Amino acid sequence: MAAVTNFIVTPLTFLSGTFYTIDRLPPWAQFLAHYNPFFYNIDGFRYGFLGQEASRPLMGVLVLIGINIVGLAATYLMIRSGYKLKA
């Protein structure tokens, strides 16, 4: 579990605009930032607290709802199939 946190969650969090706005990044990095789901989460918090956003808040809500639907479906299918469950 520490590997997932160290090599996936932490870099995605730091590259999502937590400590800076993505407007300061070069265009290619701004393009990549829009594929980072953590960006939409951080941007939503920034919009809620400060009223400033780097992307449309509705787009962030739709991306996060989509990710939740995919995660819910994957979880349901794993539980339904009994994938690696001990009886």
The main β sheet shows up as: none
Query: Which percent range describes the beta-strand content?
Result: under 5%
Q: Sum up the overall morphology in one term.
A: elongated
Counted up, domains total 1
Q: Which segments are poorly predicted (pLDDT under 50) over 5 or more consecutive residues?
A: none
Strand and helix layout:
Elements: H1 2-14, H2 27-33, H3 37-50, H4 57-81
Helix pairs in contact: 3-4
In short, what is this structure?
The protein has helices at 2-14, 27-33, 37-50, 57-81. The protein is mainly α.
Please explain how this structure is put together:
- 68% of the residues lie in helices and 0% in strands.
- It is an all-alpha fold and 87 residues long.
- The protein has one domain (2-81).
- Helix 3 crosses helix 4.
- The two termini are 23 Å apart.
- The mean pLDDT is 90.
